[in-house]
Amino acid sequence: MLTVQKYGGTSVADPDRIRAVADHIARTRRGGAEVVVVVSAMGKTTDDLLRLAREVARQPHGRELDMLLTAGERISMSLLCMALIDLGVPAVSFTGSQAGIVTDTTHGKAKILEVRGDRIREALARGAVAVVAGFQGISTDRDITTLGRGGSDTTAVALAAALGAEVCEIYTDVSGVFSADPRVVPEARKLSRVSFDEMLEMAATGGRVLALRSVEFARNHHVPIHVRSSFTWEPGTWVVEEDPTVEQAIISAVTHDTSEAKVTIAQVADRPGVAAALFRALADEAINVDMIVQNVSTAGHTDISFTVPRDDLHRALTVVAKVAADLEATGVSHDAGIARVTLVGAGMKSNPGVAARMFEVLAAEGINIEMISTSSIRISCVVAEAEVERAVRALHRAFELEAAS
Amino acid sequence: MLTVQKYGGTSVADPDRIRAVADHIARTRRGGAEVVVVVSAMGKTTDDLLRLAREVARQPHGRELDMLLTAGERISMSLLCMALIDLGVPAVSFTGSQAGIVTDTTHGKAKILEVRGDRIREALARGAVAVVAGFQGISTDRDITTLGRGGSDTTAVALAAALGAEVCEIYTDVSGVFSADPRVVPEARKLSRVSFDEMLEMAATGGRVLALRSVEFARNHHVPIHVRSSFTWEPGTWVVEEDPTVEQAIISAVTHDTSEAKVTIAQVADRPGVAAALFRALADEAINVDMIVQNVSTAGHTDISFTVPRDDLHRALTVVAKVAADLEATGVSHDAGIARVTLVGAGMKSNPGVAARMFEVLAAEGINIEMISTSSIRISCVVAEAEVERAVRALHRAFELEAAS
C-alpha cells in the first residue's frame, strides 16, 4: 500500500514542526505503508523570497522568479529528510526536476504534462521514504517552473495518480472541510466525506482548503484525497467519488467569497456577437470572468453583469470602456463591495425547491440578491459584502448544516 | 574576450549589494567582454541553513545537507539575474547541475570531474550573461553535491578553464592579497602580483583570501586570477604564472595561522615503519596532519612532533594514544596554544640566508621557535600563540615588506 502525504507551509514552519511531521511519517511507515511525501516551503519563506525579488527588480523575470521560489521547497524537503534519517527512517529528497515532474513552459503557473517518477520508484524499492518538493517542475525547455497557487496540492495528487497511491493525504492547519467557514459560523460541522464535484464547487466559490486544480486532477485520475490536520492528526475529510448507493446530503456546505467585484454594462444592443466581443476582449487581457448574467431583452436592448477578481477590476474597466463604445452601450457601472454566498450539495440534483428556499431565507433576513447563478449542485447569489456573513449564518441555520449528516 | 567574475557572500549580502554587483557586470559588458558570473550564497545564508539542519537532526545526512545548502546560491543567483534583466542586461541563471559541473559522489567536499558548460555557451552565444551557482555540482550518481570550503572560488576557476576565459576575477570584501594580515600589521601592503606557487603557500599557511583548491586548479589550468574588492572596485592582486624574465621579490608576505595544535610523541623506537604506522592511523581517521618534525635519533629513540587542526585535536590524541602503546613510546604531550608564522617568497630559492635571518629576528624578539618546516619558497616556524602577532610584525618590518616592490 502506497500513501502520498502532502504537508503545507504551516505544517513545516519551524524545526519543531518538521520533527513532528517526521515522527508522523515514521509512524505511518511502521503501520506498513510505503510513503511519498510532498512538502511546501516553510511558513512564510515564499513571501520572504518574493519581497527580496521586488527589492532587486521592478518586474522580476518569470524564469528567474521560479528559480528563486523553488529554493523554498528545497530547504523544507532536505530538512525533513534529515529529520527522518535522524529517526532511523531512510529518506531521500527529490526536486521537481529529479522527480520527473515535466511541465509546459509557462513560468509562474506551469501545467504538469507528465510525471516520470523513476527515481521515486527506485527510492521506494530500496525501502526509503521519497520526499518531493511541491509546487515545482522542469519544463520541456529544461528550465525550472512553478505550478502557481496551490501547486503543492497538485504535485501531491499528480504523484498519487502516477504512482497508483491508495490515498493522497493533504495535511494542513485546519482539521478538514467544514459546512461553512468556522470563523463566520462557529457551529460549522466538519464534513467526513464530500464528492469531487462538491469539493470543486466549494473550491471555486470560496472554500480555501484545497486548490481547484488539485481537485480537478484528483477527480480526473480517481485519486481519493484525505484532508486533515498536522496539528491534531485526527481524521479529517475524505474527498472521493460520489457513491451512487448512498443518499446524498441535499446541502453539504455554505461557502462565501469576498474577492470579486461586479461590472454591469447597461443597454447594449441585443444582437448576436455582443457577449462574444465583450468576453473575448477580457479573455485577451487574461482577466478571469466568473459569474455572467444577462437579463431578458427589452426593446432590443439588454444589461450584462459579470464578476471579476477585485485585483483585476481596474484593468477590466479599461477593457470594458473600450468595448462598450463599440457596442453603443449607455453606460458601465461597477461595485467592489459585493460578495458571493453559495450553497453546494450533490443531493440538490434530485431535490427541487432548494433555490426557492435559499431566496426565501435571504428575503427573510432582508438581504437583497443582486445576481444569481446555478449549476446542478450549486446555487450562488451575489449580495452586498456587508451582509454576506449574516447570509451565511442564516443559510447554515435554515438548512440545518450543524446537525450530523 | 570572456571574463569570469565570482562574487562572494558579502558582495551579494543584501538587495542593495546585489544591485551594485549587477551594475558592475553591466559596465563590464559595455566594455566589450562576455561575462560568466559565479555567486556564493548571500551573507550568512549558509550558516543559517546549517543551524536549521542541526535543529532537526543530530547528524545531518550528507546528501540532504548538500541539497539544503545549495538553496543558498539558488537564491542569490536568481536575484542577481533579475537585477541584471531589470537593468536591460539579458541574463540566465544556472544551477551547478544545469551548468554541467559534474563531481564525484563525496558529499560536502566533492571534487569536480568535468565541466560541460553547454548551456552556458548557448547563453553567451545568445548575448546573455550566464550566472552560475557556486559551490555546487551534480554527482555521477545524479545527486546534488557541494564542493566544500571555498567551493565557489573553485567553481569560478573551473569554469574559466573550461570556457577559455582570459581572467577569473574573484570579488571579495578585501581589496587584494596583502603582505600580511592588515589587522595585525596596519602598514601591510597590497601586492599587485603574486605567483601561483606563492599564493598556494600563502593559502596553506593562513592567508584566507583564496581557497587552496581553487589556486591549485588555476595553476594546473593556467587561469590568471584577479582578486579584488566589490566595495571599492579598485584593481586588486593578480595571481599568475611566475614570470622568469622578472626578478622575484625575495619575500612577498608573512602569513600566520592560529588554527592548529601540536602533538609530540616522545622516545619512540627509531626503526622503519614507525612514522608510517602513526600517520596511517591518523589518515584513516581523516585527520589532516600539517607540519611533521622528527628529531635526530639518540640511542635508538626519537621524538616525533606534528600539528593538526585544533578542532581535530581530541580525536587525534585518541588515535595517538593507541599507536603510542604499540610503539612503546614513553609519552604523548600536546599544546593547543601554538601558532605558525610563515615567510613566503618566490625569490627565496635563489637567496640563501633567509632562514637564518628569520631565526635571528625571532631570537631578537625573545620568541622561542618550537618547530621549523621549509619548502623551496616558504619557511614556517611554530611559536607560542601569544607571541605570533609580535612575530609577524617583527618579520614584516625586518624584511621591509611595507615598501613598494
In words, what does this structure look like?
Two copies of one chain form a homodimer. The longest helix of chain A has 16 residues, at 15-30. Chain A folds into two domains: 2-173, Acetylglutamate kinase-like (Carbamate kinase), CATH 3.40.1160; 243-405, VC0802-like. Chain A contains twelve helices and 20 strands. In chain A, helix 6 runs parallel beside helix 8, helix 7 (196-204) packs antiparallel against helix 8 and helix 9 (274-284) runs antiparallel to helix 10. In chain A, the strands form four sheets. Chain A has an eight-stranded mixed β-sheet, sandwiched between helices. A four-stranded mixed β-sheet of chain A has the order 5-4-7-8. The first copy, chain A, is an alpha/beta fold and 405 residues long. Chain A has helices at residues 15-30, 45-56, 62-69, 71-86, 118-125, 151-163, 196-204, 212-221, 274-284, 313-326, 354-364, 388-398, and strands spanning 2-7, 34-39, 91-94, 101-103, 112-115, 129-133, 136-139, 144-146, 167-172, 193-195, 225-229, 237-240, 253-257, 260-269, 292-294, 301-309, 331-335, 338-344, 371-375, 378-384. The mean pLDDT of chain A is 92. The interface between A and B is large, with 39 and 39 residues.
